[in-house]
Amino acid sequence: MLDYGTQADILKGNLLGYKGAIFENLMADFLCKSGQKLYYFQKDSGLELDFLVRFKGECVVLEVKAKSGKTKSLKTALKNKNVYHLYNAIKLGKYNVGREEEILTIPLYMGFLIKDKLTEVIVPDIDFSLLN
Prior knowledge:
Layout: H1 6-11, H2 19-33, E1 41-42, E2 48-49, E3 51-55, E4 58-64, H3 72-79, H4 81-84, E5 89-93, E6 98-100, E7 103-107, H5 118-121
Parallel strand pairs: 4-5, 5-7
Antiparallel strand pairs: 1-2, 3-4, 6-7
């Protein structure tokens, strides 16, 4: 879906504006290899959610960032629980393990753990009660 020559640019290290697409594709690869189906959500209003997955019995948003960044769509979806029925999210990118209210942040390299393995390897003092 990217321009002709993109592959060569990436292989040369010229990531330019492709970082977001590269990181999202890496997460898609993690999900596919763990046997999960890929679901994406977009509205005409501009709201878009990178991935929707089943995690610990509920629908959870996965937001992938090339670096730390704003997540306006994610926050909108979580604020409007009666519309989107989303209660938790996992944000992956250039982050340490942590929590911002109902958003769990983890480094992108831990994305392969999303399929119900995450709570087994994260530091035990992180509160995962919202994901149960």
